[in-house]
Amino acid sequence: MLNPLLKELHRLRKLIRDAQAEIDRGPRVLKAHQTKLAAQEKALADARDALKHRKADVLTGESQIKSLTQSLAKHEKQLDTLTDPRQIEAKEHDIAHTKESIAKQEDDLLNAMSDVDERTARVPEFEAAVAKAKADFAVYEKEAAERIVRLKDELKSATAALAAEEAKIPPAIRGQYDRLVKAHGADAFAAVENQNCTHCRVGITQQGLADLKAGNEFICCRNCGRAQYMA
Predict the structure, then answer these.
(1) Domain ranges of the chain
(2) Domain spanning 21-168, CATH class
(3) What pTM did the predictor assign?
(4) For 39-59, what is each residue's pLDDT tens digit?
(5) For every residue of the chain, which 3-state class applies, written as one string?
């Protein structure tokens, strides 16, 4: 009977197709995991770099305040020696401007120091995320390698089994079988359930159902052309 043979051919071809698809997809999925890990590592590097720059801002701010404070002291000392009203007014203006600059720099310094504290506190979170991503990737990489080995073994066994089953195909229908497989691959077949083709859902006649159950003819769906067998 053709029914058991076609059913097994369908099962094997789907198994081969799906196994090969998963093998082919493996490198892309691995690349996606690598990209995810790289993104976590970049986030950590960016956080450390930003922290480094903010610490540099603190040092720069402290240096600028020191320089402005020295300038203020110089201006105040010079003011003590002046007697000309216009010179006194100009120097007082310089002193006021320097004090404003110092106040602004002190505000900026406080903000920078606060930012440094916040960024420093967040760095361990980034480090933990990278550590977890590395651990997850190592586990996935190991499991993926084992899965690929298993799939290749299944593919080899299924291919050998398919060759053995195809040797049982009657010569009279081998040409039609080959053409269907070339056109549709693993989808060249369709089971019939409740008198309907499971591929296109079009019903078959009572006579067609009887012929299919008898299993002596190679019957194709009148709508989608798939080789049919009883489910």
Answers:
(1) 21-168, 169-231
(2) mainly alpha
(3) 0.74
(4) 999 999 999 999 999 999 999
(5) CHHHHHHHHHHHHHHHHHHHHHHHHHHHHHHHHHHHHHHHHHHHHHHHHHHHHHHHHHHHHHHHHHHHHHHHHHHHHHHHHCCCHHHHHHHHHHHHHHHHHHHHHHHHHHHHHHHHHHHHHHHHHHHHHHHHHHHHHHHHHHHHHHHHHHHHHHHHHHHHHHHHHHCCCCHHHHHHHHHHHHHHHHHHEEEEECCEECCCCCECCHHHHHHHHHCCCCCECCCCCCEEEEC
